[in-house]
Amino acid sequence: MDWKWLEFLWVHYRGRLIGTLAGLFLGIVYLIVGLWKTIVFMLIVGIGYFAGREWDGRKDLRQVLEDWFPDRWMRK
Questions:
Q1: How far apart are CA 76 and CA 73, in angstroms?
Q2: Which residues touch 10 (CB under 8 Å, ≥6 apart)?
Q3: Contact 30/23 with Cβ under 8 angstroms?
Q4: CB-based contact 9:17 (threshold 8 Å)
Q5: pTM across the whole model
Q6: DSSP secondary structure letters along the chain
Q7: How far apart are CA 3 and CA 39, in angstroms?
């Protein structure tokens, strides 16, 4: 089977492909568990995404947590 068409789609339409797959996944979750649980799920995934993005940029999870939470919550 020739996979060049899939590579072409990935190179030229990566954002649309990822967006469509994310929409399909969230639509299935919505159908299975309902609206509010889906919203909570999306919120948790969003928090994870932003934490991962911060961690990628700084490569130190402790520094990310210190930026997010006040000093009184962090043990030193």
A1: 10
A2: 17
A3: no
A4: yes
A5: 0.51
A6: ---HHHHHHHHHSHHHHHHHHHHHHHHHHHHHH-HHHHHHHHHHHHHHHHHHHHHHHHS-HHHHHHHHS-GGGS--
A7: 36
Sign of the alpha-carbon torsion through 21, 27, 30, 31: negative
Query: Tell me, what amino acid is at 66?
Result: E
Q: What pLDDT sits at residue 37?
A: 87
Residue type, 29: V
- Crossing angle of the two packed helices 35-58 and 14-33, in degrees rounded to 10: 140
pLDDT at 76: 60
Q: What does the pLDDT look like over 7-65, one tens digit per residue?
A: 888 888 888 888 888 888 888 888 898 999 888 888 888 888 877 777 777 667 677 77
Structure tokens at 16: 């649309």
**Size of the chain in residues:** 76
